[in-house]
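Reopening this ticket.

The earlier resolution said the output was attached, but the attachment link was broken on my side. Pasting everything inline this time so it's all in one place.
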Amino acid sequence: MRIVVTGIGMINAVGLNREEAFNNIIEGKTGIGRITHFDPTNFASQVAGEVKGFDPKKVMDPRDARKADRFIQLGIGAGKEAFEDSGLTSDDYNPERFGVVAASGIGGLSTIQQASIICSTRGPRRISPFFIPACLVNMLGGFASIRWNLKGPNLSDVTACAAGTHALITAYKTIKMGMADKMMVIAGEAAICEIGVGGFSAMKALSTRNDEPEKASRPFDRDRDGFVIGEGGACLIVEKYEDAVARGAKIYGEIVGVGESGDAHHITTPAPEGEGAYRAMKMALEMAGRPKIDYINAHGTSTKYNDLYETMAIKKVFGGKENCPPVSSTKGATGHCLGAAGAIEAVISLMAMERGIIPPTINYENPDPDCDLDYVPNHAREADLNYVMSNSFGFGGTNGVVIFKKV
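Inline output:
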């Protein structure tokens, strides 16, 4: 059974739709700046990849928007774009055979923060009755299921920064198992709030390059000092190849390999030498039949150990530096969108394959001798892309890899 992607949508710090976002990424632009969602003056890290100009009332019924955290709003915005892009109508599917997989790393963190303040200052009776459903991760899938009448499996992946990729893999496996014919993969994250930034800062995970926000996220660069938190949403419509062909759908790519693994090492630090990442990539490559990979969209967070160990894992799985394909991280443009990152980067990977262009790794100024691959520094590169790989690795040692093939 062949499974393909027929609709895509994304929202992030460099664009409110897939075209705007992808074009800005290719042009080497960044959406990272000083935080405006709150006053960051007293925070160690004061920069983020915020989505500017997003109006949830344009993508949701205003009454529903008021009941939903921003991560849900961003996800539904991307879902609207992807569903329209797929060309699907109610005549094209049986609702009971069309499911949804939602993804988020944290869910409604800002809503939790606000409700906690209300509870402590005004009392528990003043908490909104919509508080709980507004912040649950699976409510992104719930809103999507209701919005598009999707009565198939309604699932969620909450695997930190690998959630978006794992959701895509879950959709793939659900169709493979015969439990659905079509799946909507929908991801959202919006954790740029005091408790989110404060928490990651306490871990010393975030960049503190506050005087140069646009250069704070610098994957694989020698002077990287942490990731930059981002927000956004993404959606992919996944279905059987035969069904897509029968209705004349545009096909962005076929999912030909997936890989998952656990580090079993540390709650935040990846396994030494990227051992878990290596096994996930190896699994995906073997499932795909070990084709020639033309491009890897790396997890590339701009942290010391992720970038080093991902580089080591890539070299191991491809049998040495000389055999590795071009690699780039787009987090210099978008920031790290946590649980939505994998879905956003899957969309970027498919658009790169469709258009024959590799996105750049921006802010790559000072090579790290231990990170010595071709990271497509600072400028996009035209290339014939037939197979692309997208990597996602999360806290808790959870890893996901997807390989797409041009159809």
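Reporter confirms the inline version is readable. The first strand starts at residue 3 and ends at 11. The two ends are 14 Å apart (CA to CA).
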